[in-house]
Amino acid sequence: MKVILHIDFNSYFATVEQQANPRLRGKPVGVTGGDRLKRTVLGAASVEAKRFGVKTGMQIWEARKLCPQIILVPGDSDKYLETTKRFLGILKDYTPYLEVFSIDECFLELYKTRGPASQVSRRASSLAFARCGYAPGPPPGCHPSFCDAEQIALYIKQRIKAEIGEWITCSIGISYNKLMAKLAGSLQKPDGLVVIANQEETMKVLDQIALDEICGIGPRIKKRLNNLGIFDFKTLRKAPLEALLASFKSYGQTLYNMARGIDHSPLIPFYEKGEVKSIGHRHTIDHDTNQEAEIKQILLKLSEMVAARLRAKNLVGKTIHLWYREAFNLASHSSSGNVFFGDGMQNTIHYTHDGLEIFQAAWKIFHLIWPARNATACETGGPARNATACKAGGNKNKIRMVGLSVSSLKPVLPQNLSLLPETAKQEKIIKTLDKVNDKFGEFTLQRGILLDSTVIRRKPNPFLSERRFKL
DNA sequence: TCTGGGGTCCTAGGACCC
DNA sequence: TCTGGGGTCCTAGGACCC
């Protein structure tokens, strides 16, 4: 039987801030996305803030309403990544089978006996026992693996507190697959430790929780299940597989399994995870706009940010995806709930990591899909993507968010670099630009057209989900 | 005052090539 | 006049996660 530990740090960014700054300890703290307080949400809330009902993802004004004394701290991605590297270093002592799930979450598989790292795994496990002074040998009635795992989990918690900081706490779930380990970890917060050791315990837990408490059932799937008369796992378990397949296609099998606590997904250790599949940025403008010049500047900046990250990872990409969201219009959408209108489109060009080329592709797409532009295109007989937009005479709605991402990535090999003098010159310019910016900060050197731009923060987003860590 | 920003995976359908 | 089938690439759209 597999033994999986899921480790989830509680109120991660907030506790890291409290650890770093003693004056924040014991106080309600909210971590924000930077200096901006308008149109932004909390990236994390401390335990003390949560007591007031403040939650991660809440808007600033809402959090302030619930807890006027909340201390807002701008997020610092470097600090969080650094802390993550440190706790991963500790976890590696217990098994090489370590999957990094997000900046504050990971899975560990203990006692794996097959595969190339099994020797290391066994060594690591015995080392763990030695370190915590625990002699393997479970009390009667307890599955040996799980009892040992529980001891290891306790020891991991101790080490994190001792080596990283007493304010950094984590919840650990232990079970026989990833799905149930993650669920176990979510049952007790903060600083929890829950074991789901067998089928019987799985059923007991599943029958007590809501459908969307399990990883993989979000609001949409939940609603569709509700429409089928399924409101809990007990009922879901009674649903025939055929019915679920008919409604959810292949995902029906996943739901069928979930209701029984079955999950065959393998743990993918960090050293087997591939490179990233896409790199993107999006930006919500602090005021709504339909000014092309303004949108152009934002897109240029996003393009340069994406390109710089591609170059930093030594990647090129060829699929450019641009999308936007229109301003929220309460008057016209209030009855239909939270509806945001927007559009997006992707286009494949040649492999590149040049911000200007990425921008040019994105700008072309933008002109094809933005209804206001479509209206002009209709009038002038130019290319219009959306006939409805033409008929409606264009859309007067303003834009609140634009996003840009590059996918279809591949590593840059020396032979891929063009030998054309113009391209070589461009490459040289870009390299110099990167060097200066690496040393003196993002956008120290930038394209002239960006000089007026103050629209996007200089620092990268602290909530950026870096799923790759160098260990 | 009115939901941020970073990702992943999956499916379906069309175009195109051999 | 007119078409089989496999493979691959591309795009759109939906859903989920932290």
UniProtKB/TrEMBL annotation:
<dbReference type="GO" id="GO:0003684">
    <property type="term" value="F:damaged DNA binding"/>
</dbReference>
<keyword id="KW-0239">DNA-directed DNA polymerase</keyword>
<keyword id="KW-0460">Magnesium</keyword>
<dbReference type="GO" id="GO:0006261">
    <property type="term" value="P:DNA-templated DNA replication"/>
</dbReference>
<keyword id="KW-0515">Mutator protein</keyword>
<dbReference type="GO" id="GO:0042276">
    <property type="term" value="P:error-prone translesion synthesis"/>
</dbReference>
<feature type="domain" description="UmuC">
    <location>
        <begin position="4"/>
        <end position="218"/>
    </location>
</feature>
<feature type="binding site">
    <location>
        <position position="104"/>
    </location>
    <ligand>
        <name>Mg(2+)</name>
    </ligand>
</feature>
<feature type="binding site">
    <location>
        <position position="8"/>
    </location>
    <ligand>
        <name>Mg(2+)</name>
    </ligand>
</feature>
<keyword id="KW-0808">Transferase</keyword>
<dbReference type="InterPro" id="IPR022880">
    <property type="entry name" value="DNApol_IV"/>
</dbReference>
<keyword id="KW-0479">Metal-binding</keyword>
<comment type="similarity">
    <text>Belongs to the DNA polymerase type-Y family.</text>
</comment>
<dbReference type="Pfam" id="PF11799">
    <property type="entry name" value="IMS_C"/>
</dbReference>
<keyword id="KW-0234">DNA repair</keyword>
<keyword id="KW-0235">DNA replication</keyword>
<dbReference type="InterPro" id="IPR053848">
    <property type="entry name" value="IMS_HHH_1"/>
</dbReference>
<dbReference type="Pfam" id="PF21999">
    <property type="entry name" value="IMS_HHH_1"/>
</dbReference>
<dbReference type="Pfam" id="PF00817">
    <property type="entry name" value="IMS"/>
</dbReference>
<dbReference type="GO" id="GO:0006281">
    <property type="term" value="P:DNA repair"/>
</dbReference>
<dbReference type="InterPro" id="IPR036775">
    <property type="entry name" value="DNA_pol_Y-fam_lit_finger_sf"/>
</dbReference>
<keyword id="KW-0963">Cytoplasm</keyword>
<keyword id="KW-0238">DNA-binding</keyword>
<dbReference type="GO" id="GO:0009432">
    <property type="term" value="P:SOS response"/>
</dbReference>
<dbReference type="GO" id="GO:0003887">
    <property type="term" value="F:DNA-directed DNA polymerase activity"/>
</dbReference>
<keyword id="KW-0548">Nucleotidyltransferase</keyword>
<keyword id="KW-0227">DNA damage</keyword>
<comment type="function">
    <text>Poorly processive, error-prone DNA polymerase involved in untargeted mutagenesis. Copies undamaged DNA at stalled replication forks, which arise in vivo from mismatched or misaligned primer ends. These misaligned primers can be extended by PolIV. Exhibits no 3'-5' exonuclease (proofreading) activity. May be involved in translesional synthesis, in conjunction with the beta clamp from PolIII.</text>
</comment>
<dbReference type="InterPro" id="IPR043502">
    <property type="entry name" value="DNA/RNA_pol_sf"/>
</dbReference>
<dbReference type="GO" id="GO:0000287">
    <property type="term" value="F:magnesium ion binding"/>
</dbReference>
<dbReference type="InterPro" id="IPR001126">
    <property type="entry name" value="UmuC"/>
</dbReference>
<dbReference type="InterPro" id="IPR017961">
    <property type="entry name" value="DNA_pol_Y-fam_little_finger"/>
</dbReference>
<feature type="site" description="Substrate discrimination">
    <location>
        <position position="13"/>
    </location>
</feature>
<dbReference type="InterPro" id="IPR043128">
    <property type="entry name" value="Rev_trsase/Diguanyl_cyclase"/>
</dbReference>
<comment type="subunit">
    <text>Monomer.</text>
</comment>
<dbReference type="GO" id="GO:0005829">
    <property type="term" value="C:cytosol"/>
</dbReference>
<feature type="active site">
    <location>
        <position position="105"/>
    </location>
</feature>
<dbReference type="InterPro" id="IPR050116">
    <property type="entry name" value="DNA_polymerase-Y"/>
</dbReference>
<protein>
    <recommendedName>
        <fullName>DNA polymerase IV</fullName>
        <ecNumber>2.7.7.7</ecNumber>
    </recommendedName>
</protein>
